Amino acid sequence: MTDDQKALPDLQDATLSHDALLLYLDELIQAQVAVQVNIKGAARVRPTQLVGLPQLKEAVEKKEIHAAQLRYRYQGINWIDTVTLHEQGARLVRMQVA
């Protein structure tokens, strides 16, 4: 397979309630995984870097952000999770990266 023919990575897509989103963040915090977090305060604002997961969780609880992208390595696999908040909770899109 040539570079032009490489398949796109599989995506996992889920809708989370607000409580489930907070649980997801708690699980990442407890796993002590090194996570790079980029956040967006609004739909048309450039992403900014955030210090860590506890600060992200606090921003989610206060509904101060629009979206976040989390990059981390878990059990030898690199992942990118994109979380977009909405009124009922959040959309989580997960992608495994090489």
Layout of SSEs?
Blueprint: E1 11-17, H1 18-30, E2 35-40, E3 48-50, H2 53-61, E4 67-74, E5 77-86, E6 89-97
Antiparallel strand pairs: 1-6, 2-3, 2-4, 4-5, 5-6
Helix pairs in contact: 1-2
Provide a descriptive summary of the structure in words:
- By secondary structure, this protein is an alpha+beta fold.
- The chain has one domain (11-97).
- Helix content is 22%, strand content 44%.
- The protein is built from 2 helices and 6 strands; from the N terminus they run βαββαβββ.
- α1 runs antiparallel to α2 (53-61).
- It starts with 10 loop residues before the first strand and ends with a strand.
- The mean pLDDT is 86.
Radius of gyration, in angstroms, nearest whole number: 14 Å
Summarize the amount of helix as a percent range.
10-25%
Main sheet specs: 6 strands, antiparallel
- Give the spatial strand order of the biggest sheet: 1-6-5-4-2-3
In short:
Helices cover 22% and strands 44% of the residues.
List the defining traits of the structure above.
98 residues; alpha+beta; 2 helices; globular
